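Lecture 7 notes. Example A: sequence first, then its structure tokens.
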Amino acid sequence: MTTTMDKTEHVLFLGKFENNKKYKEKILQEIKSAICAMLNTNGGKVMIHIDTDSSVPVEGTAFSQTPLVIRILDQSIISIIGSQQTVSKVNFSRRNGDKDDEESIVVSVQKADSLVTMNHNLFLPSETQVVQVSSIEIPNAIINRKIIEDPNQLGSHWKIFVKGEICGLKMESKICQFKNLKAEQSKRITLADRITGKGNKFSCCVSAFANHSGGHIYYGITDGGVVEGEFIPDKEKREITKKVRKIINKMIWPDQIGEPKRREQWEIFFEPVVDANSQPVASTFVIVLYISSCLGGVFTEEPECYEMMEGQVSKMSVAAWRKRILGPNQIESIPREIAPSLAWNSKTTEKLCIQVFCDLTLCMNNGDLEGFEKAKEQFTIKHPHIVELQLVVLLKEILACSRKHDFEKANSLLQEYNTQLANTSERCIFDVLELYIKAAYNRAKGDEGSTLNLVRDLLVSAVAMSQWLMPGLVTALVNLFAATMADSFDNTSLRPPIELANKALQHLKQVKLGNSDVHADFQHRAHIILAAFNLGCNLSGNSIAHRVDDKCVDEAYSSIRAIEKFAKDNSKLTHYRAVQLKLVQSIYNFRCSQNQPKEREHFMWEALKSCKDAGDLAKEWNFHEMVSWSKSLKSLLLLQQHL
């Protein structure tokens, strides 16, 4: 077979239409691809030359092959674009060749009204199975959806499985599929292979659940809901997890997800099967695969779609396909935020960690080093086996060392934190916190370009990962720190500080801190961030606008007054916030000196006085980071004073 092409014509010399299934499928695939490409471009003609030798049997009968080929192509095209477009956009005609035993089929193609995709490779769940999205359907509702209603939660799967009894779930649904791997394991086909094999529609189920509300696949349960379990020696669990990760990573996920991560887009559990007396059945488990709901569309593989490029039939890239499906004005509207789904596995652990965090935060922000050490020792002695508590203590120690510029010790503690991460069952939460403390550590080390870029990248990752967590203390903490630094970066995907700060305050409402002073400290911090934002600066002094208008200065003054009033009516400022407030007041007076020339000297004097007070307090309470900020601000003020 030879093929020649130009911009409007695809010529295929089929030769004898052999009675061979694989051969026919290959040729028909080429023809359909060419027709699809022309439908998606500017139309054209596909010419198929056929040897009409009647001695060649087709399906056991000797006759001209042309009608058969036309009928097969007609049916195939109808299945792809529907009968209406096939009738209006595709026309088949026969043409005699130069020789008596030659004949041609000419397929005249007009440009389609919308993008034609031969196979979307997208799936959705029904009540009893997963179903493929038809090529006739336009999948905008999947790839451009904005909201996930009632997303299935990580850890919400059924956990009690009794051998031979009906599972508590009883039946399959749009968020639950049962699989019973009946085929026997061999040296060539492992359990991992059987789980992820095409026959069990593994990637199809992953796509279906991700494109709907998320869900769970249960391996070791019959279609009728009876628990059989799978025999799994411990050494095979790692291999199964590895194979599951490999197949999931090979699928096509939205750009905002990138490579799917365990505990975010998926998780695997090996739940023990017990007998009627609640005794574990040896090495027998139900494998539960959790798939999170996902915005943007998850494909088993790239959509099969073609276009004409420089006279050649070319498979369309995923990016180009998305743009054609959504339109040029909608491609950026794919939501970047995702529905939060991850909560603490243990409410008791969460409550204890919040208590530790609050107590250590107050000691640290008041410069009470002795109180900090006592509280740390008390918690670690009382709860020596709770890894999550140890991680919170390490986190606060790292922050305390960073503030004191004891970077050697802070780095050592970071390494310990990273080591302990492997032992927590709250991995995603503490992964987010690790990004947060690394950003804080590097911010404290200095403001050189490379360091600042590292801080930016860490914060962008922390904010992105935190979107998977249920709103609470961790998400508030990350958003507040991102708000503090957002204006320091030239290029970033972080939202404006005012938006991040307000989001943090909303998340704080979702958690009981157990200590009103800590809640007040968060409020003070948020208002300080808002004031600094309106004053066109950040507190570290590495970014400050040339000027801001009177309206922004007034907004900053309102925030300063809110801090002062809140502190008076509810809880006094911690020493750390008191220093920050002095810095904000200094910058406020500097802005007033710019906008009110007649009183410039008075406001500059107030600005320098507040800056000096901030530096003195920072030295007294051993806040080395704040001492550096005060020096930076003082240098700026002195420079402006002499201009």
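Example B, a different protein, same format:
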Amino acid sequence: MKLWSTTALLSESQLRNAADYTLTDWSEHDKNQENRDLAKAEIERRKSEAERKAEEAAAKERAALAAKRDRLAANPFDPRTEISEDARHIASRIVTHLWILFVLLPFCAFILLAIAGLIR
């Protein structure tokens, strides 16, 4: 299926703004050989640019991981992902005391009042 075909030369803006499937169609079915070559060159440029961007992103990610690894080597405690033993101890004490205050104490009070006969 021919999406667009002409004998006129394609402009740079047409090539840059064309969709991938349009470029593929131009590179395979255009009447003008120079247009086919231009479309193929644009396809190759886009592929190499995508590969370059992927390599740059991978390099940035590797650099970020290396920097994080270096920071953690200098200070192995990461406060965003780890909880210190002191914090765990304090939290367990708070939870224990809250459980005693709001569960065990009312239950014991109810039992004592029931035994004393004040609750029927």
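Note on Example B: The mean pLDDT is 85. The radius of gyration is 36 Å.
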